[in-house]
Amino acid sequence: MIDLRTLHATFKEESIQGRYVTNDMLFPFLDGLSDLFEVAVIGESVLGKQIKSVTFGTGKFKILMWSQMHGNESTTTKAVLDFFNLIDSNSEIAKNLLASCTFKIIPILNPDGATAYTRINANEVDLNRDAQDRSQPESKVLRNAYESFQPDYCFNLHDQRTIFNVGVTSKPATVSFLAPSHDEERSISASRGVSMQLIVAMNKELQKYIPGQVGRYDDGFNANCVGDTFQMLNRPTILFESGHFPSDYEREETRKYIFCAIVKGCQVIANQDIASYSQKEYFEIPENGKLFYDILIKNADFVNKSLQIGTDIGILFKETLKSGALTFVPFVEITGNLSNFYGHKTYNCLNNKDIDALKRQKEIFNLI
Asked: What residues make up the domain containing 320?
């Protein structure tokens, strides 16, 4: 069996990297796609920015994907570009996918949010809470794409914060999945069952590469979410969440694993191997916890004597756009006894080496 990480190394699109991805970066890549791909303008954002789709393949199984519904969630967009490169490779995998499936992919659904690096659109609406009202032009674009394409499967592509861990472990949730509910009872309809089976297939693949770093989102029902809505329409829908990989704040490593998941999911659909995977194993994927801070400073009172004895500090990074560049600005999220929490980077102020390391990071040390 081929190692999908090897495929990614071959087909990674090097021209677009980092967390800040906009139409201005995307469109030159789309303009360079071969005749295999049909690139079309399918609508406009609140501020009049074009929203484009890419359609390809001739197969009977139709797969709709959309990314950057939240403008500041770009990891899956990068993985989609890598997927385009694979599809254009004339490889056996590409031939199989093209012959078995037809794809419609919207790389950036919320271009205004992408430019501003915000979750919301220019009207300050979360598009993933607008599935019923469809009050926003971007929401209408997605629903129109759904109605005209009539997909058999939907991939809803997102990013998640660095706070998530897998279960109660100290493993970060590098990739998380959800088979959205279609009713308040969270019952398993035929379409939701298929979503679960596809997630099991992708999880099995990812466990080869990032064991213990795949989580499952809470499946509380919300009809205003797009995934829940499409599941209500009896279309198997999967939520992908790109999370943190150690020291990978630009999410170039996570990009790789999202690519692997997309390829595996599409292969299972193309080969109609879905029945080979058990719905039961979906529930064996641990739910996400929220036990991480970007930086955890233990025993901070040893440095700041005004703090209560045994006080820890949990620091998160605020992703801030400055002059077109993304910066990670630390701020104190919480102080107290954080013995049950983890840090992507941990310092213990009882250790002189850790104190010296903190002093070399003045922006962080000044928060103690």
From this structure: 292-365
Note the pLDDT of residue 1.
Answer: 73
Tokens representing 231 are 């599941």
Over range 167-172, report the average pLDDT.
97
- Are 196 and 314 in the same domain? no
pTM of the model: 0.97
Task: Taking residues 245-256, report their average pLDDT.
Answer: 98
CA-to-CA dists, residue 117 to 37, 71, 125, 232, angstroms: 28, 6, 14, 31
Rounded to 5 degrees, φ, ψ at 119 are -65, -40
Whole-angstrom CA distances from 293 to 176, 315, 330 are 18, 6, 11
User: Is 122 in contact with 45 (CB distance < 8 Å)?
Assistant: yes
The Cα 269–Cα 277 span in angstroms is: 12
Write the single-letter amino acid at 111.
Answer: P
Token output for 176: 């998380």
Domain edge (last residue) among 236, 264, 289: 289
Rg (CA), the chain: 21
Assess whether 231 and 354 both reside in one domain. Answer: no
Nearby residues of 326 by Cβ (< 8 Å), 6 or more positions away: 18, 19, 20, 117, 319, 320
**Helix, strand, coil in percent for the chain, rounding step 5:** 35, 25, 40
Q: In the predicted model, what is the mean pLDDT of residues 291-307?
A: 97
**What's the total number of domains in the chain?**
2
Mean pLDDT of 112-120: 98
DSSP string, 82-103: HHHHHHTT--HHHHHHHHHEEE
**Sign, CA torsion 190/173/108/131:** positive
Residues 308 and 343 in one domain: yes
Q: In this structure, are 284 and 308 located in the same domain?
A: no
Mean pLDDT of the chain: 97
Q: Are residues 250 and 338 in the same domain?
A: no
The C-alpha atoms of residue 242 and residue 343 are separated, in whole angstroms, by 18
